[in-house]
Write a structure and sequence with these properties.
By secondary structure, the chain is an alpha/beta fold. The chain is built from 7 helices and 9 strands, in the order E-H-E-H-H-E-H-E-H-E-H-E-H-E-E-E. It has a 9-stranded mixed beta sheet with strand order 5-4-3-2-6-1-7-9-8. The radius of gyration is 17 Å and the shape is globular. The protein starts with 8 loop residues before the first strand and ends in a 10-residue tail after the last strand.
Length: about 240
Amino acid sequence: MAEAGRRPYTLLSCGMSLDGFLDDASDQRLLLSNDADFDRVDELRAGSDAILVGAATVRNDDPRLLVRCPERVARRRAAGLPAQPLKITVTSRAKLDPEARFFSAGTGPKLVYCASDTVDMASAHLSPVATVVDGGRPVELRRVSEDLHVRGVRRLMVEGGGEVHTQLLTEGLADELRLVVAPLFVGHPDATRFVGAGRFPFSGARRARLVETRPIGDVVLLRYALSPRFRESAW
């Protein structure tokens, strides 16, 4: 059973366009980063116990969510950790392809938190490739977070998408945001934004604390402290 109030340190990692979009609504994934920044993200993954994405990200981007650098994989093993972080997704409809790279890439465990009324369907469809967990109806990210803590996750990296970011931010479940801004515009009304509508804790007179800005090639990294649990030296 989840321990109420106990959850992993949660870091949101995201890249967006100058006008706040995660993608451009085309059939091809829009690359908002560069090689140096991809390497930075790989280092973050290597220091994480788990990586979480929404089901739309699994369907649309087909991500592997793996630590790619062999030296970083070796470092995890030397520290007594699994070679790869735990992979997690959340879904209300449980309509996920078991052959997606989220499931097929890497040999580590995967968790799928789904809505209570889709657990049976999800289990029948996905149990060969993942552990299916009841996430509530609708899926409650606080419940998910507390359950992950029980499973030993202490450092959770969240890589999207917009709905997941919105829920974590509006519910006060994010401790840190690392946001990369790419020098381009999307401008498509059907494209996915970094966040959707909601009641955010940082609005009006209350501002998130900016702790770092850093150019990485042609993109800029903005790092924000979002909770009292923020760690200046977080992984």
